[in-house]
Structures are given as structure tokens and as C-alpha cells.
Write a structure and sequence with these properties.
The protein is α+β, with helices and mostly antiparallel strands. It is about 20% helix and about 40% strand. Bound molecules: zinc ion. Zinc ion binds near residues 102 and 204.
Length: about 240
């Protein structure tokens, strides 16, 4: 399966051929739909074929590894048979908000000290949990620091390293709860030039300026040394 979203997060649609259909959903030979993972929700959208279309309400990973992507259809939809050519079209507005949010969390990770113990991305709000001492985080200061990184409009790139190189660089991993996806022989690094470098398989914007501005809306105390920082996009 060709995971087009990995090389081009801006691809909104593609033509593809149905390779399998089962009770979990539809598999294609290529897709722009990102499957739930790394705290980022699965994409939604439409599959068009034969003059009709069905809603895709979620996208998840199967057991066949990171490139086993299952498109979950709305209940009761008439499913395409294997071999059918379809057009896969993302709900782009939602996905683009996920890209902006996801990239903003990388900046948040660069601004807040301590390791990340969890996180969740949403179109309206997102959060990261940090293992840091109490009373050490200031909402306004973090908001200002992240927005300064956004205003710098830093380019963002990806590069691949081998599993062995990854194993030799444990300091690259800020997130304790999300293990980098090793096993396929290579790991993708997300590089916010000079700001943040870590393994990540999600979708991101091309420059920090595209995030457009965030606000830290809440810092919650989730137990000993665990602070949950919640952010929202300004628009
Ligand atoms: Zn990422």
C-alpha cells in the first residue's frame, strides 16, 4: 500500500483501486487518508465510485503494520468490490487543522521542558502531558514562546534514518508513551529546523507560520509531576 500522506501531507485526493473489503472496512492500493496513530485522529472523507459515493467516518491501522490502512465506511453503505477504481477524497478542512495542531504540539514540546507522557490532537483543541514539577509552567509565557516560533515561519522537513541509527540516539525520543515506529528498517524524523527533531509519522504543515497562532487555554494538574497543557488554534 502506498501511503501518499507520508510523502505529501497536502495531497487531498487520489485515485486508487480497492484491494480488500472486510467487516472492518476498505483497503486500497494507495491512499491519502491518515490512520489513527501517534495521537492524531484518523481522516474522514468520501470514496467515490460508479457515480456514487460513500462516507468514510474513520481511518484506522490493521494488523499488517503501519502501511495497512483501513477506511471505515458509514454504517449500511454499499461497499465497492475488490478491483473497483475509486477516488479517495479527504475532509481537507479537518485534516488541515490536524496538521496545524500537530505541528503546534512539536513547538510546544520544544518550549516546555521535561518528557512527554501522552498527547491527543483534535481539530478544536489538543494537549500534551509533560513530566515536570508542579508550579513550573506559565500559560501566558508558553503561549508567547510558541507564537514566537510560529511567527519565525521556520521550514519543516522530514528525513529517514535506519532503526540502528534510531537505537543509537535515544535522546531523540521526547515522548515516552509513543514508541517510534521501528521494525520496518527505517524511522521518519520530523525536523522543525533548529527547533525540534524527533521521530514522528504524523502529518504536518510545511512551515510554522501556517499554524497561524495558538493559545494555551488550560494547564491541568494530572498528578505528581504530570502537567497537561491544552492548546487551541486562534482561528
Ligand atoms: Zn509530528
Amino acid at each position: 500500500m502506498d501511503a501518499l500522506f507520508r510523502d505529501d501531507a497536502y495531497a487531498r485526493s487520489c485515485t486508487a483501486t480497492v484491494t480488500a473489503v472486510d467487516e472492518r472496512g476498505i483497503r486500497l492500493d494507495r491512499t491519502v487518508f491518515y490512520p489513527t496513530g501517534g495521537g492524531q485522529p484518523g481522516d474522514t472523507g468520501v470514496l467515490r465510485f460508479g457515480g456514487a459515493g460513500i462516507r468514510i467516518t474513520d481511518t484506522v491501522k490493521g494488523e499488517g503494520g503501519p502501511d495497512d490502512v483501513i477506511h471505515v465506511p458509514e454504517e449500511g453503505a454499499a461497499l465497492p468490490a475488490p478491483g473497483t477504481e475509486v477516488e479517495a477524497i479527504l475532509d481537507w478542512e479537518r485534516r488541515h487543522r490536524h496538521m496545524r495542531m500537530h505541528t503546534a504540539l512539536h513547538l510546544l514540546c520544544a518550549v516546555v521542558p521535561g518528557s512527554v507522557t501522552g498527547g491527543q490532537i483534535g481539530a478544536d483543541k489538543s494537549r500534551l502531558d509533560f513530566n515536570v514539577p508542579a508550579e513550573s509552567l506559565d500559560k501566558d509565557a508558553i503561549t508567547a514562546a510558541v507564537n514566537a516560533l510560529i511567527a519565525a515561519d521556520t521550514p519543516i522537513g522530514t528525513r529517514w534514518i535506519t532503526d540502528d541509527e534510531m537505537a543509537a540516539s535515544p535522546d531523540l525520543v521526547r515522548t515516552m508513551s509513543v514508541k517510534p515506529p521501528t521494525g520496518s528498517g527505517r524511522v521518519r524524523l520530523l525536523d522543525v529546523t533548529g527547533v525540534d527533531l524527533q521521530p514522528c509519522g504524523g502529518t504536518h504543515v510545511a512551515r510554522t507560520g501556517e499554524i497561524g497562532g495558538i493559545e494555551v487555554t488550560k494547564i491541568e494538574n494530572k498528578g505528581k509531576q504530570n502537567r497537561r497543557v491544552v492548546i487551541a488554534l486562534k482561528d
